[in-house]
Amino acid sequence: MSWVYLVIAGLFEVVWATAMKLSNGFSHIGFSIATVVGMILSFFFLARATKILSLSLAYPVWTGIGAVGSVLIGVLLFKEQLSLMTWVFVILLVVSIVGIKISSGH
C-alpha cells in the first residue's frame, strides 16, 4: 500500500504544480486554493508512504513522478515544446524511477 500512497503523492504534486501555473502568480483564488490543497494532499500521502518506505527511496520517486508528470502536463496542456534531447532525459527519469522501484526490494 505504501507504493500506492507514493504514486498518489506524486500525482498530487503534478496537480499542485499545474494549479500553481494556472493561478497566474496566485492572482486567481480558485487555482491558488487548488495549489495549497494539492500540496497538502501530496505531503500527506508522501508522509503515509514514508511510514514504510525509506526516505532515500520515497523522495526521489515522489519528485520523479512530479517531474515527469509536470513535463507531460506542460506539453499537453500548455503546448510547451521540448527538444529531442530533453525527451531523452525525461525517458531516463522514467527508467530511473522504475529502476529504483525494482531494486528497492519493496
Automatic annotation (TrEMBL):
Encoding gene (name): sugE
Positions of transmembrane segments: 27-47, 59-78, 84-102
Keywords: Cell membrane, Membrane, Transmembrane, Transmembrane helix, Transport
PANTHER family cross-referenced by the UniProt entry: GUANIDINIUM EXPORTER, SMR FAMILY PROTON-DEPENDENT DRUG EFFLUX TRANSPORTER SUGE
The family this protein is said to belong to: Belongs to the drug/metabolite transporter (DMT) superfamily. Small multidrug resistance (SMR) (TC 2.A.7.1) family.
Name listed for the protein in its UniProt record: Quaternary ammonium compound-resistance protein
Membrane recorded as keyword: yes
InterPro entries the UniProt entry points to: EmrE-like, Small_drug/metabolite_transptr, Small_multidrug_res
Organism: Paucilactobacillus wasatchensis
